[in-house]
Amino acid sequence: MSLTDSSPAQIAKAASVASRNLATLPSADRDNALTAIHQSLLQAKESILKTNARDLSLASKAAEDGQLSQSVLKRLDLGRPGKWEDMLQGILDVRDLEDPREHLLRMGHASYEGSDQAYSGLTESTEPQQDGLTLKTLLDDGLVLERITCPIGVLLIIFEARPEVIANIAALAIKSGNAAILKGGKESTASFHAISSAISSALTTTAVPNAAIQLVTTRDVIASLLECDNHIDLVIPRGSNELVRYVKASTRIPVLGHADGLCHIYIHPDAEPDSCLRILLDSKLGYPAACNSVETLLIHQEALRSHLPAIVSALLEKGCSIRCDDASKQSLLTSLPTDKSALLQDAVEEDYDTEFLSPILAIKTVIAPANAPEDVAVSLAVAHINAHSSHHTDAILTSSASVAQQFQV
Which residue from 271, 272, 245 is spatially nearest to 257, judged by alpha carbons? Predict the structure, then answer.
């Protein structure tokens, strides 16, 4: 991995050359590189965390002055319990994945008895096929159409201030045989440099070219990189709505990006209450600043008394703000002790379109007409999600396979 202040055109060209070398490396060489990166980061832990602490100190002052949001500040902290360990384990998890270039075909073409038959149907097969083969169809005698997996080429990934993202992306790019150009947020500049140096040191001992993963250190290069459609094959912006819209409007390169993480959980009345409690605590408070943290809880009216009090009580005890619609608030006022019910807030319509990125949860009751079939409530929940969700991560809690299937479809 190289720290580069080269021109955008030089960066893109170097990545393009490196991508072709990386794409042809054996799986063992790429896996060895990930092992080396893991070991190098492990050895550099103390210096990286000290550097990250300095970034965090400067960012804390910016947050106090109102120049930086609390959600971004939380994402900067690489010393948060479990975050460093998760980053390192993630590298090993990616290393141990099946090589995407050696995808095993689970669907094979049908067998034929007559040489004059031409059949394009598929039948199930568990036999491994050649490297990267995902589809094989007989079009005519002696004419077989095959679809194979292959690396994309060069990825331009623009992201915010989460320092562990560099290790995440480097691992995924190397495993899949893609080169990557990275541009991170300025709040974690020193942390990015420390992690990149450890990764670069590791790659010098492997067959993976250093230019395969580049961290751009100069400012104002994004606009120029977005013009390098002759060398860059895919742009992945990870950040605000403004960033994603800007990237999409500024390049001819294909863009894969999402912005908001407006995530929902719907509780059906047949869901197991203890499981609902554990899932809500983890999905709301495990990492509130994450883009897959739940922001809105949809709950069936029949689950208001059986499920909601324990969930809200536990969330309030841990400092989470609860914003309720009328039905859920009235139910909770009669089931919670006064000291907790007094903390409940009234939800406004805007809350259901807000990515809080903090310990705040909006609650909406799903009210189906009297004696309506079970699927009506699920349809109402899905309709709310489709109207308000960013379709990042939405879930249903139910013990019914048919209800879950309806939600999924």
Answer: 245
Q: Of all helices (H) and strands (E), which one includes residue 300?
A: strand 294-300
β-strands 179-183, 143-148 pairing:
unpaired
Decide if 244 contacts 257 (C-beta within 8 A). Answer: yes
Distance CA 188, CA 193 (A): 9
Contact assessment for residue 78 and residue 49, using Cβ atoms and an 8 Å cutoff: yes
- Average per-residue pLDDT in the chain? 89
Spell out the residues 6+ positions from residue 226 whose beta carbon is closer than 8 angstroms to its own.
Answer: 156, 235, 247, 250, 251, 253
CA distance 387 to 320: 25
Q: Which residue has the tokens 């893991």?
A: 38
pTM above 0.85, yes or no: no
The answer to whether the Cα torsion of 58, 51, 222, 90 is positive or negative is negative
- The Cα–Cα gap between 288 and 318 comes to 12
Alpha-carbon distance of 36 to 206, in angstroms, equals 8
d(CA 221, CA 244) in angstroms, rounded, equals: 16
> Is the confidence at residue 161, as pLDDT, over 60?
yes
The shares of helix, strand and coil residues in the chain, as percent rounded to the nearest 5, are 45, 20, 35
User: What's the pLDDT tens digit per position in 201-254?
Assistant: 999 999 999 999 999 977 689 999 999 999 999 999 987 778 888 999 999 999
Question: What's the sign of the alpha-carbon dihedral 239, 245, 248, 249?
Answer: negative
- What distance in Å separates the CA atoms of residue 356 and residue 284, rounded to the nearest whole number? 10
Q: What is the pLDDT of residues 93-129, one digit of tens each?
A: 999 999 887 654 333 333 333 434 434 444 333 344 4
Q: How far apart are CA 226 and CA 239, in angstroms?
A: 16
What distances in angstroms separate CA 154 from CA 15, 23, 86, 174, 233, one per listed residue?
6, 11, 26, 11, 5
